Amino acid sequence: MAEERQSIHGQWSSRMAFILAATGSAVGLGNIWKFPYITGEHGGGAFVLVYLLCIFLIGIPVMMAEILLGRRGRQSPINTMRSLAKEEKLPAIWKYLGWMGVLAGFLILSYYSVIAGWALAYVFRTGSGLFTGATSDGAQTIFAELIADPERLLAWHTLFVVMTMIIVARGVKSGLEKAVRYLMPLLIGILVMLVGYAMSEGAFQEGLHFLFDPDFSKLDETAILTAMGHSFFTLSLGMGAIMVYGSYLPKNTSITKTSIIVALADTAVALMAGMAIFPIVFANGMEPGAGPGLIFQTLPIAFGQMPGGVFFGTLFFVLLVFAAWTSAISLIEPAVAWLVENHGQTRIYASVIAGFVTWFVGLATVFSFNIWSDVKYWDMTPFDLLDYLTSNIMLPLGGLLIAVFTGWLMSRQSVQDELAMRYKGLFNFWYGVLIRVVAPFGVIVVFLNAIGVLD
């Protein structure tokens, strides 16, 4: 058995602290922005059912593997993979799995902060009553004017990066843990209030029917592949965030139980977001499959026409900012941890460096919507290219390699020691079926679909 390592960054004070942090990492724009519109595009209930199945067969097994690696290594993803490869007598090249995760999280945050900046801007736009009585054309014009102005986008992008780095600079217990202890309950509270608002002012029964009554005639190959892809990405897998959070997890905490709780909490938030959004959409005679514009162009019109819409619309965008914020701090944490470990930097200095580089790379996304809109690489804007590279290549490849390393290359004894499952049959099912066969196969399908091979 390997010697017990200790993280130089500290550890979570309790299992609940880890659950809140990991759920905060998983709950982001994908739950509140992306999940409702892809559910709308793919017919509702049947899509949700396939999504839940994929969470169980792909998402949870890979999450358990990533937490396992993080806790066993007790370092940044790069140093964790280097140490574990050496421990298992494997080639040092496996450290590049850590590098890929850190780089993916860093690149994602560079454009994620720009989109989060839109949500910040909409808190003030909605709160000022700008959308009261707005028409479809009016809402589209407001959004178009925002993204066409590089100075405004840059200001919101800068503000969000600063907000993120202030928390990360304070460390594990004083920064990350304290932030999620406040933000996650607030996020859930706001979501419950919005669901209550939808019950009283929206077509709630119609929304529930759409979300939970499966119509398998609407389920096609594209819907299944989309559900598989989202079930993987929604849990923040393959980007180093869950691995580094796992490195702060106390030894006596059950990885299996915490992974299941985090996955269930993440899924519950996505479903509650649907319960808040679809009744409002239906009550106003709008299209649930409105696509990416559902949040920033369709919903503001609905809030602008409903009683109490200014207050609850503002609350909705505050919710969106909180969700983005809890994810953002996990995206940059792996890079900050590596700078502290390898370059002897203080936590504050490492956060400033990582934050500045993230902000600088994010300029490519800011300008993609305006002054660089004609700049194309393989018919993609800089933003589209970053999104494609991370979401379609780096994350599924990272998830696949995590599954392969844990299921096929680590010794069975090492995996057993770290998971410490009470029931041997459950371990055999996870190890022999899910992490070695089902999860890798599922991630390969997601990867091939994402790069267009299955089109």
Structural class: mainly alpha
Radius of gyration: 21 Å
Order of helices and strands: HHHHHHHHHHHHHHHHHH
Overall CATH class: Mainly Alpha
Total number of strands: 0
The major pleated sheet works out as:
none
What is the CATH homology-level superfamily? Amino acid/polyamine transporter I
Strand content: under 5%
**CATH architecture group name:** Up-down Bundle
General shape: globular
Number of domains: 1
Kindly report the CATH topology.
Amino acid/polyamine transporter I
How far apart are the first and last residues' alpha carbons, in Å? 46 Å
Q: pLDDT under 50 segments (min length 5)?
A: none
User: Helix share of residues?
Assistant: over 70%
Feature tags:
Amino acid/polyamine transporter I, 77% helix
Can you describe this structure?
- The mean pLDDT is 91.
- Helix 3 crosses helix 18.
- The longest helix has 35 residues.
- 77% of the residues lie in helices and 0% in strands.
- By secondary structure, the chain is an all-alpha fold.
- It contains 18 helices and no strands.
- It has a single domain, classed as Amino acid/polyamine transporter I, CATH 1.20.1740.
